[in-house]
Amino acid sequence: MFDTLFRGRRNDRRAREVASIAEYECRAAEVLERNAHEFFRSGAGCEQTMRLNRLCYEKIRIRPRCLARVGNRSLAINALGCSFKMPIGIGPIALAKLAHCDGEKALARAARSMGVPFVLSALSSVSLEDVAEAIPRCPKWFQLFIFKDREMTENLIRRAERARYKAIVVTVDTPVIGLRRSEMKNPTSLPSKVTYANFCPPHNNVCSKNISEYVRNQYDPTVGWDSLRWLLSITSLPVILKGVLTREDALMAADLGVQGIIVSNHGGRQLDSAPATIEVLPEIVEAVGDRVMVMHDGGITQGTDIFKAIALGAKMVFVGRAALWGLAVNGQNGVEDVLDLLRVELDSAMAIAGCKTMKQITENRVRYESEYLMPRVRVLERLDANIEEADAVVEHVVVVDDPRDDEERISPDQVVEVLVPTGEDGLAKFPKGSDGVDECGKTVSPWCKTVNSDVVEVVRAPPRITREVRIVPEVAKVLNRNIKADIARRDYLKNRCSNRKAASMHNLRSIVKSTEDCRCIM
């Protein structure tokens, strides 16, 4: 009886031969040709950025909420007028036939089966028309570069329009091809049956023997924002910019009228020492707000990575290598299994974190590692923000449970500089006895927390070490000035802004600008 009972329970959950993306990567390394594996795996330079893409996820913590009624969860989203079953897509992958004989067709069919978007690369080994025939009713996007040959670039767009692709994804981080040391030592040689299909006759009059060289010579280092204006003027399809890593470029793109941005560093394959995409994602989301749909790729190997990216503002994420490893191991079925792994892991993370829908995955669901490693502080004297004199600022705080190494701990007589956190209305509100920081907006200082007139204490753990330190007078004056200025900004925004989120972001930017000279000296 017990054998029957447990056997039935085991069958409720489908057994997986491969249970993680990391396992798929290991198996792909075994089945791929060495040159093909290095072509897909390698990054630029010493591959620092490629490693950072993974490591930076590990520095972000998820803050679960319990008893949140998380039955009937939904991962569904809407993007560019289409509905998708989950916020995951397959990003552009060049020469997928190096991994499997079905190449991009298998990737596209897996995307259709799982209800996610598929982005076809201009450098694909299957032509865009053949992929469109393989998935005629599936939403698909076409990725290209602005090549030197503008006529050929426009021709690719026209072909995508005729094949009913739903969007054009323009990669803007490749004025030249990044230097990859593994390819410098072992240049990739294409088998006779694998080529850049979109550049073959009859679509291109270049001789097939010279296609690889022709494509390499088409990258244009002179491409500028005027080139993007030209591209926007020749198509009615939504245009998405892929490869944006700074707020300045994001704002330029939004001003020009692009409809989406993919925060991407090309999987670490272009510029080594570029930041990880998850590091710059909040900066870009804050810069463009709701003007542009912000998406994300880079280093995603599990569902919690997707949760963190969504929490920091991404509407959708894309995977490249992860899908490729599945393709190499088991073709279309392997890609479907990779996507299903990510779906199951994301759904589990949502349930345990207390989220039923994508909209509930917000910034207050995550914290950076540094916020848990910093000293916790408690104010002993409350500040009256209406007092005019600068010396009326709170003068004593208590360090509670400093978790750092003994050599770095704050000594009892050491001066600590602190910055003021901001809440939705410009002033942080943490109730006395709070064991966490919840629904309070962003904190200006990433190292330390203090409080103002609306705050009594901020602690995340029972105190074990209590030491009294003081705020230096210069910082006290800055604190007092900032709080009074913030009250004025708060009143102004209450009258002018009906959108509380907009008010919060405005206050945060103002406080950051006014406290640039106030730095932590712990």
Automatic annotation (TrEMBL):
Protein name (record): AAEL004671-PA
GO terms (BP aspect): fatty acid alpha-oxidation
Catalytic activity: 2-hydroxyoctanoate + O2 = 2-oxooctanoate + H2O2; a (2S)-2-hydroxycarboxylate + O2 = a 2-oxocarboxylate + H2O2
Keywords: Flavoprotein, FMN, Oxidoreductase
CDD domains (alphabetical): alpha_hydroxyacid_oxid_FMN (cd02809)
Gene Ontology CC annotations of this record: peroxisomal matrix
Family classification: Belongs to the FMN-dependent alpha-hydroxy acid dehydrogenase family.
Cofactor dependency: FMN
A GO molecular function held by the record: (S)-2-hydroxy-acid oxidase activity
Residues covered by the FMN hydroxy acid dehydrogenase domain: 13-371
Highest taxon above the source species: Eukaryota
InterPro entries in the record: Aldolase_TIM, Alpha-hydoxy_acid_DH_FMN, FMN-dep_DH, FMN_HAD, FMN_hydac_DH_AS
Species of provenance: Aedes aegypti (Yellowfever mosquito)
